[in-house]
Structure formats: C-alpha cells, structure tokens
Design a protein that fits this description.
With 276 residues, this protein is mainly α. The protein has 13 helices and no strands.
C-alpha cells in the first residue's frame, strides 16, 4: 500500500505563501504591542488604571457599538464587487473620530466608539469584497462581524485560547446560527436572540481591544493628534485581521476548511521568511 500524501501537499506554492502571509497578519503582533510602541508605555499595564465604572460598563458599550455598526454599515453597504478595497480612506475617516476621543478623553469614547466601529466594519466588508466574498451572503456578513473578535496575540495571551483558529472554532456555532437566521428571515437586527448571542461573544473579545485603545488614549500627553494616530492604528489592526481572515476563507472555498486548517497549523513558527 503506497504512503498517503499529507493534505498540505494539495496547496500550491503560491497559495501556501498567501496562507503564510495571512498567518503573519493574524497571529503577530497584537494590538497592545502596536499601541505600546506608539505611546512608549506598556498598554497592558495602563489598563488597570482605567476607571472601575468605565470597565464595568465596557462590554455593554461595546455590544451597543457593534449593534449600531451592524445596522448602519454592513446592512447598507454596496454589494458590488468591481471596486478595490479603500483602506486609506477608512483610516483617514476613523482618524478624525479618534481626534475627538483624544481631545476629550474617556468621556467621549461612548460617542466615538460607535462611529469608529461602524467605519471599521465598512472597511472589513470592503476588504472581504476585494478578496472575492459575496456580501449578499449572510454567512459572509457574519464573517465580517467575526473579525472584531480577532485581537491578535499579546505577551499575556494563552496561545490555545487566543489563536486565530481557536477563536473561529469558539465562534463557529454562533456564526452559523446567526447566518441561518438572517438567510431565512432576511433581517440582521442586533436585538434578535441569535444576533444577541453572536454580538455578545464577539463583544467579549472586541472589548479587550477597546480597553487597550482606551488605555492608550487616556495617557495625558496623547491629546487630539495622538487620538487620531491611535484610532488609525486601531483601524490598521483590524484591516490586517480582515485581510488575513478573508485570505484564509478564500483558500477554504477552494480546498475546504480541513485542508486549510492543516496547512495553517503546519506553517513554521519562525516567520522571518514570510513575504510582507
């Protein structure tokens, strides 16, 4: 009996390189590391200085922001696929909203967060479309929402809990249920039970990134200009997550999830030779 070839052999060299690039985006570095480099202070250490009242209401505010983004952005976006993604335009727009947050501090975040979240979701959908996704498909729209749960790695993360594949596995049932509901009822309001469940699970992960952003903006010297830079970096992070996520999904459409998962897991940990 001849030896069976490994599943990973079915990917072509250029497709394996694309997957390696996607993994580079999805696994390293996390948002906290990028923000720490920007402001010169460890963001994870600053989070504990955020007001207790603010931290207690974080998940509620984040879920509300996701609900508003879902209603305002994803359900009204142009579904045509002939145009390329416009990451710079979205960065400029979200930078402007970040200037507000930086100038007025944490008190402005409740106003600024729904705006920046909506802009980020529109950019995620833009990237999905550029990678060949059909935005009229409810599953694709839920996959766009799923990107907010992808925070990347930080020094304190448990790799088994925070890695890209682990997050997707944790959200798989909620994404599937929400996609099925939207397909059959033609509605994706955040107040419906299946959407509440998905939004809650995404919000619990997205809230970590929001708290990191808030901690960076709370640094006294940040101000409006710094807030704009932080929001631009916030957008840039989720654009990277979206790009990696939809490259993986594009390969899954050709080879299936099992094949791509095995190929992803077989990639070397040393990423020095991964194309940028």
């Amino acid at each position: 009996m001849s030896e069976q070839l490994p599943i990973v052999a079915t990917l072509k060299d250029d497709e394996r390189a694309q997957l390696a690039y996607a993994r580079q985006l999805l696994e390293n570095p996390g948002l906290a590391a990028r923000l720490s480099d920007l402001i010169g202070s460890p963001v994870e250490g600053l989070i504990k200085n955020l007001p207790t009242e603010w931290r207690n209401g974080l998940n509620r505010n984040v879920q509300r922001a996701l609900e508003k983004a879902l209603d305002a952005a994803l359900m009204t976006i142009d579904e045509k696929r002939e145009v390329a993604a416009s990451p710079l335009r979205h960065k400029l727009m979200v930078g402007a909203s970040g200037a507000l947050g930086g100038a007025f501090g944490l008190g402005a975040l409740a106003i600024e967060l729904p705006i920046s979240t909506t802009l980020i979701l529109r950019s995620i959908a833009d990237i999905a479309r550029s990678e060949g996704e059909d935005l009229s498909d409810p599953q694709v729209r839920m996959a766009c929402l799923e990107v907010f749960a992808l925070g990347g790695r930080s020094s304190s993360d448990d790799g088994a809990e925070s890695g890209y594949l682990a997050v997707r596995a944790a959200l798989a049932r909620a994404v599937s249920d929400a996609s099925g509901f939207v397909a059959s009822h033609k509605v994706a309001k955040g107040s419906t039970p299946v959407m509440v469940k998905l939004l809650s699970e995404v919000a619990s992960r997205f809230g970590i990134s929001v708290s990191q952003k808030a901690a960076a903006q709370a640094v006294p010297i940040v101000g409006g200009a710094g807030g704009a830079l932080i929001n631009t970096l916030f957008m840039d992070h989720f654009q990277d997550m979206a790009r990696g996520h939809f490259i993986v999904r594009q390969l899954e459409r050709s080879y299936g999830e099992a094949v791509v998962r095995q190929a992803y897991q077989s990639l070397p940990d040393d990423r020095d030779d991964i194309p940028a």
